[in-house]
Design goal:
With about 575 residues, this protein is of the alpha+beta class. It has 5 domains: about 5-90, predicted glycosyltransferase like domains (Thrombin, subunit H); about 100-230, no CATH class; about 235-325, no CATH class; about 335-420, DnaJ domain (Helix Hairpins); about 435-550, Alpha Horseshoe (Serine Threonine Protein Phosphatase 5, Tetratricopeptide repeat). The chain is built from 23 helices and 14 strands. It has helices at about 100-110, 145-150, 155-170, 175-180, 185-205, 230-240, 245-250, 265-270, 275-285, 290-295, 300-315, 335-355, 365-380, 390-410, 415-420, 435-450, 455-465, 470-485, 485-500, 505-515, 520-535, 540-550, 560-570, and strands at about 15-25, 25-35, 40-45, 55-60, 65-75, 80-85, 90-95, 115-120, 125-130, 130-140, 210-215, 260, 285-290, 320. The strands form 3 sheets. A 6-stranded antiparallel β-barrel has the order 1-2-3-6-5-4. Strands 7-11-8-9-10 form a 5-stranded antiparallel beta sheet. Strand 8 and strand 9 form a beta hairpin. Helix 20 (about 505-515) runs antiparallel to helix 21. The termini are far apart. About 35% of the residues are buried.
């Protein structure tokens, strides 16, 4: 089974390309199978390459060159297949990476730093803090604040010309000159600045012939002004700019799948600037219509419908309808289904990837995808979560895991080709529940270290599923959830860890920090004091006590402080 550590934080692009891998044992030729913030590759004559090896990767075809670390390696006779994560700055060409995918990946990893986009004539910067878009700058005249204000009718053409003239004479940027001339109040200036930043980012989605690099690290407080940018709306319109119909069809679920709004989507949808056509498409995403039916109902082109669905899927506004993965409530295991579960559990390895999906070896990509969705509807573990029998749940999980492995392998052209040439696989002794829990826990810790919090949370949840008696599984599940800002769920998970091991100061202190994020100051203080009783030098508890007693401000301070900073930076006069 492919190691779960190969799950990466950024969109994975499947494309084969030649590469050169250099390690301290020599240089090796190979080919890339897919790439993102890392790569999956097959390397020739590289038996000395093992997990943990530091390597240099270079592919002229994709313009990829980076320093990486081998996360996993497995022998694929006569070659070696490896998963490599990047350890230096994320960079590349916008011909090979889509900008919305980059921004979504940085949001997912809660990164802080500056994304630079440049070619011979363009120089744009997008400033990001904890995954949030907070500012942007550009060297393009059309992106200037003064030009935007003229277009919006906020200043006259003569005022604009005067601004440009004084800026050229003094060497000051147009924003500073505009403020000094007193054409706008501080409040008007903030609104205009925010609109300009959004315009710069949106216009960046049109740039493809350019390089990019993300410089990770703390932001200089004087270099950028933090603004409240609607990142969801930005990403939505970024994904809407994808015009490749074949790509959109591949990225969206099969046509017979029903889609519906995600849970609690109201605030998400309300903050989107959508056209009437977009909203008409949205109205059919009610869990009752398949994609095929929506295409016939929307009275617009297929590509426009797919663009809207693709964008909504990527911002998390819609999901597969609940019926695609039936609810656990009321599920009964009749004799016929029980016999099928027993048969598939006993014979899944002899069935092989094609047999488990019920397809022949000549099946198309669409047939593979549709077969997997059929298996998911029948054997998804969530459907049987409430069953009292752990034995049945374990068998169902085994079937679904193997079906997922089959789908991932057969959906990738290179992996499918390798599988077809090596169909004889030695059967392995089924792992115990404790072993399955420990394996998922260890994989989750690795993903947590590289800040892949979503997949880490999933793996920790699976560890808890197989073994709910181990406190550390609950604790790390809570840590991952807190990184995803799911503080209520995090509190439940860490509280369970504290129940199982009430003498562990780290668990108690971390629970205090989660309470603090939920606004429960008294509970937080109690947890920090309890942790210090258990361990007087516990750093997380001491840090929490300081936060509750000193009421420290955030990095950017209050909105009033933000206004003061902007006024000071641009020399604005505050209106009384």
């Amino acid at each position: 089974m492919k190691d779960n550590r190969d799950k990466r934080n950024f969109k994975r692009y499947r494309k084969e390309a030649e590469l050169i891998l250099k390690a301290n044992t020599g240089a090796y030729k190979g080919r890339i199978i897919d790439y993102s913030d890392g790569i999956c590759a097959v390397v020739k004559d590289a038996s000395s390459i093992v997990s943990g090896t530091t390597v240099n990767i270079k592919s002229h075809e994709l313009g990829i060159e980076f320093l990486g670390e081998v996360v996993w390696a497995k022998k694929v006779i006569p070659d070696l297949q490896v998963g490599i994560r990047r350890v230096d700055n994320l960079r590349g060409s916008l011909k090979d990476f889509r900008l919305p995918d980059i921004l979504k990946g940085l949001q997912k990893t809660t990164s802080t730093g500056t994304l630079e986009i440049h070619n011979d004539s363009i120089q744009k910067k997008i400033y990001i803090k904890d995954g949030d878009l907070i500012f942007a700058s550009s060297n393009q005249a059309k992106d200037s604040l003064a030009k935007a204000l003229v277009t919006a009718g906020k200043i006259t053409v003569d005022q604009y010309k005067k601004t440009v003239e004084i800026s050229e004479q003094t060497g000051k940027n147009q924003s500073t000159t505009l403020a000094e001339l007193g054409y706008l109040s501080p409040q008007e200036f903030i609104r205009a600045l925010k609109n300009q930043v959004e315009m710069i980012i949106l216009s960046s989605f049109n740039v493809t012939d350019a390089k990019f690099e993300f410089q990770e690290g703390p932001l200089d407080a004087d270099e950028s002004i933090p603004l409240r940018i609607n990142a969801t709306n930005i990403l939505y319109h970024g994904y809407k700019k994808v015009n490749d119909l074949l790509y959109l069809k591949e990225e969206c679920p099969p046509p017979d799948i029903e889609l519906s709004l995600a849970r609690d989507p109201e605030e998400l949808i309300q903050n989107l600037s959508m056209s009437d056509t977009d909203r008409r498409i949205l109205s059919y995403l009610d869990g009752k219509h398949t994609i095929k039916e929506i295409l016939s109902l929307t009275q617009t082109s297929d590509i426009e419908t797919f663009k809207t669905i693709h964008a909504l899927l990527n911002i998390g506004a819609i999901e597969l309808t609940e019926g695609s993965v039936p609810s656990a409530e009321g599920v009964e295991i009749d004799n016929e289904l029980m016999e099928k579960i027993e048969e598939m559990n006993n014979n899944y390895k002899s069935l092989g990837y094609y047999g488990i999906l019920g397809i022949n070896e000549g099946a198309s990509e669409e047939e593979i995808r549709e077969a997997f969705y059929r298996i998911a509807k029948e054997f998804h573990p969530d459907r049987f979560f409430s069953l009292p029998s752990d034995d049945i749940k374990e068998k169902i999980n085994t079937i679904f895991s193997y079906a997922t492995e089959a789908y991932e392998t057969l959906s990738d052209e290179a992996n499918r080709r390798e599988y077809d040439t090596s169909l004889s696989v030695k059967s392995e002794k089924p792992a115990s529940k404790d072993e399955m829990a420990k394996a998922r826990f260890n994989q989750g810790r690795t993903l947590l270290m590289i800040r892949n919090y979503t997949d880490a949370a999933t793996l920790f949840a699976q560890a808890v599923y197989f073994d709910s008696s181990t406190a550390s599984y609950h604790y790390y599940h809570g840590l991952a959830l807190s990184k995803l800002n799911r503080f209520k769920d995090a509190a439940k998970a860490i509280n369970e860890a504290v129940k199982l091991n009430p003498q562990k100061a780290d668990y108690v202190a971390e629970l205090g920090h989660v309470f603090l994020m939920l606004g429960f100051k008294a509970r937080a203080q109690h947890s920090f004091k309890r942790a210090l009783e258990l361990s007087a030098s516990n750093e997380r508890a001491l840090e929490g006590i300081l936060k509750t007693e000193n009421n420290k401000k955030s990095f950017f301070g209050s909105s009033e402080n933000l206004l003061l900073r902007i006024s000071k930076k641009y020399g604005l006069k505050r209106k009384k």
